[in-house]
Amino acid sequence: MYKRQVYISGIDVYGDVSETSRSDVNIIAVVNPQTHQILLVTTPRDYYVPIPGVSGGQRDKLTHAGIYGIDASMKTLGELYETDINYYSNVKEEKEMATIKDVAKAANVSIATVSRVLNGDKTLRVLPETKEKILRVASELNYSLKSKEKKNTFNIGIIQCYTFEQEFRDTYFLSILQGVEKYLRKEKMASTKVRYDDMNMKQVLEGVDGIICIGKFEKKYLDTFSKLSSRIVLLDMDLSPITNVCISLDFDDAMYKVVNYFHSQGHETIGFMGRNEYDEMSLQTISRKKSFIKYCEYLGIKYEIFTTNHEMTGDEGYSVMNRVIEEGKIPSAIFCANDPLAMGAMQALLDAKIKVPEEVSIMGFNDVDACNFTRPTLSTVYAPSSEMGEMGASLLHGMITEEDISYPRRIQLPVSYTHLTLPTNSR
């Protein structure tokens, strides 16, 4: 049966229908002319997909396909859903929704120049004809900028180092992001989220008032970020030497508490389960492992290291634990670098008829909500990730309003274990 498929795109700028920009709305309307039924299929703007003829097979945000024109968006969705899209409809902003970016583009100047002209910055050196052009374009687009005294809305750039898959499987970074967004909502501040490898990151973050980086970044990326804004806060990253404001968790103390607790419960051999390979995403895991080994040796406890080369998921925890069970050398207690690993490991033990925690004690890290629903309840280390996000956003807010001195510093937040279901070892 023949169906007509219409692509409906909504982009974020005012202008002629031929204008191209990021496509924030991506809907396919599938029309059945016989039954007169319409099926609407929507795809999230931030879904990562290959953009045919543009990204070279690499994945980028769907919204960025719109920058290359309506045809690029149609081809991208066509390949994603393995179908042909016959027609399109392009929805644009109304004139009263013009942004400072639109004014800057129409006047062929930078966003900063538009802002300073409309704010009456007397220190700005600009040709009279340029100033006149900016004022004329702003008037034509019905755009007006409030003075700094009245301005109470800032735009914060949020740069994430992790993929959607990593965020879905381990909610640690999601919790940090939620803490950031909670503070921004309370203070009525806007945000623009990107991932560090987005093809158009620089253009997307142009003109932001400050930047929050979540996760571990190489120095070359930090150098790039510093060119976008002088006000930067790093979350879950520890710098040495300290060149920015950075907030992290005290992993070293966390590992001391874990190892000391196992020791106090009479465990003579304990295990560590985490990542094996070295990369930017596993730095915090390596930090935990090093501290774990250090305190095991300090307290005279034997230890075993169980590693994986893959993502730290529940499936991987199950697989690694099965390998340990088959080898027949199971420690009486095991610490896992995150909660999904711990849940998978615990399920493998239970499936092998090994009692938890009576025979083997398992402890995770992050204290995700799902820990409350495992049976038995998973023991875990509480990581104040949401609080870290709120604190980072608050510090950046103070740096922007000059209520906080913007000097480099390191802040570490304490962690604590919770949901303890670890009996004294009876082996």
Q: What distance separates the N and C termini?
A: 69 Å
Mean pLDDT comes to 82
Overall radius of gyration = 26 Å
Q: Order of strands across the biggest sheet?
A: 8-7-9-10-11-17
Classification by helices and strands: alpha/beta
What is the number of helices? 13
Proportion of residues in β-strands: 15-25%
Largest sheet: 6 strands, parallel
Q: What's the quick description here?
A:
The protein is of the alpha/beta class. About 35% of the residues lie in helices and about 25% in strands.
Give descriptors for this structure.
13 helices, 6-stranded parallel β-sheet, alpha/beta, 18 strands, 23% strand, disordered C terminus, 427 residues, flat
Description of the molecule:
The chain has 427 residues and is an alpha/beta fold. Helices cover 35% and strands 23% of the residues. The protein has 13 helices and 18 strands. Strands 8-7-9-10-11-17 form a six-stranded parallel sheet, sandwiched between helices. Strands 13-12-14-15-16-18 form a six-stranded mixed sheet, with helices on both faces. Helix 12 (339-351) links the parallel strand 14 and strand 15. Helix 2 (100-107) crosses helix 4 (128-140), helix 6 packs across helix 13 and helix 11 packs across helix 12. The longest helix is centred in the C-terminal third of the chain and has 17 residues, at 283-299. It starts with a strand and ends in a 9-residue tail after the last strand.
Write the SSE topology:
Layout: E1 4-11, E2 23-32, E3 37-42, E4 48-50, E5 59-61, H1 70-81, E6 87-91, H2 100-107, H3 111-118, H4 128-140, E7 155-160, H5 164-169, H6 172-186, E8 190-195, H7 201-204, E9 210-214, H8 219-228, E10 232-235, E11 245-249, H9 251-264, E12 269-275, H10 283-299, E13 302-308, H11 314-327, E14 333-336, H12 339-351, E15 361-366, E16 379-382, H13 385-400, E17 409-413, E18 416-418
Parallel strand pairs: 1-6, 7-8, 7-9, 9-10, 10-11, 11-17, 12-13, 12-14, 14-15, 15-16
Antiparallel strand pairs: 1-2, 2-3, 4-5, 16-18
